[in-house]
Amino acid sequence: MRGQARTQASGWGLGHALTGRGQGAGRVRGVNGFVEALRLWFAPARVREEGETPDYRFSLANERTFLAWIRTALALVGGGFAVDQFLPDLSRGWRIALALALLVVGALCALRAVNHWVRCELAMRRGEDLPVSRFPALLALAVGLVALAMALVVLFGWAEG
Amino acid sequence: MSHPGHPVRPATPERDPGLQPERTRLAWRRTTLSCTVAAVLAGKQALHGGAGPLALVGAGLSVGLWLAFVVLANRRIHALAHARPAPMRKGTALGAAGITVGLAVFAVAVVR
Predict the structure, then answer these.
(1) Which ranges are annotated Basic and acidic residues under compositional bias (chain B) (predicted)?
(2) Confidence label for B5 from pLDDT (cuts 50, 70 and 90)
(3) Lesser CB count within 10 Å: N end or C end of chain A?
(4) Which residues of chain A neighbour B26 with C-beta distances below 8 Å?
(5) Is residue A88 part of a domain?
(6) Residue A10, domain member (yes or no)
(7) Is residue A161 assigned to a domain?
(8) Residue ranges per domain, chain B?
(9) What confidence tens digit (pLDDT) does each residue in B73-96 have?
(10) Taking CA atoms, what residue in B is nearest to A73?
(11) CA of A12 to nearest chain B CA: how many angstroms apart?
(12) Domain that holds residue A6
């Protein structure tokens, strides 16, 4: 599988492999790519085996992007705590639903931060395009839904419950 | 620039003109601050119903997660104090994300 990834390196790129793009074998490649990425999470030395060490400034920029995503995740988790603590008038169901939504999105955001960081680091080492991702759009939708739910709760006074 | 493979020299003799290590250091500081806010909220949540034994364990857990993040951030900040810092290690990334997920799991456990 790794050999396959290597031979594709020039044309396909890990980004394509992981997003499952392309026809026919695309889905298989997507699953393989995901397993590959997951293995790389827990095998630090393997990243160093791939390609060449990029300019340290690129690695630092990648690290700062990772930290920005971690901050986003921490803010979402903090928001989950805040909904639970500072909205005592909210009915129990709404409060728990909103808090859980924020906490789950926060945890996903943290895990995705590691995954994206690894993929970017690998792409830079192999001299490929940086991976593209749907995650920012999905996160924006999720945050928008939570905001809409809060607005509805306030508007229609479903606070008493 | 003469020893790219040896990040043992302090940043003073030569520095990155774009201040990349400094910016990354400050990013770690900002993230530590975010973690502090989340951990304080977690502690407040744990102690909400009085200081019973379970509440104290919960508060201790959130303090422990916060301390782990501070240690992680400080170790990375120390490693960044070189002209050409080595890339972040996988363990550091997993640790930071793990602490964030840990706080979320803690929150789910104590949600009322």
Answers:
(1) 12-21
(2) low
(3) C
(4) none
(5) yes
(6) yes
(7) no
(8) 20-110
(9) 999 999 998 878 888 998 999 999
(10) B100
(11) 25
(12) 2-156
